[in-house]
Amino acid sequence: MVRSEERKVGERGQVTLPKELREKLGIHGGDEVLVHEEDGKITIEKPLSREELAEGYRRRAAESETLAEEMDGVSREADEYLGDVPEW
What we know:
By secondary structure, this protein is an alpha+beta fold. It folds into two domains: 31 residues, no CATH class; 35 residues. 45% of the residues lie in helices and 11% in strands. It is built from two helices and two strands. It has a two-stranded antiparallel ribbon with strand order 1-2. The radius of gyration is 25 Å and the shape is elongated.
């Protein structure tokens, strides 16, 4: 469910996030947040933790390794099918 609360922007551009949302998202004083603008809307979100980023990189590396193995197999099949192709 999307919740909206109207907030006032302070002189220095500061906005106070509602306590309920800070607690729900685990955002504490001094934490960093990501601020995005898209189509005239501002989104504030908690960034990924280092552990979450590392897991994403590990998953991506495993996917890349699998793709490289698949491409190597396709390349061998192509070589077998085409044989020696003369250089241009």
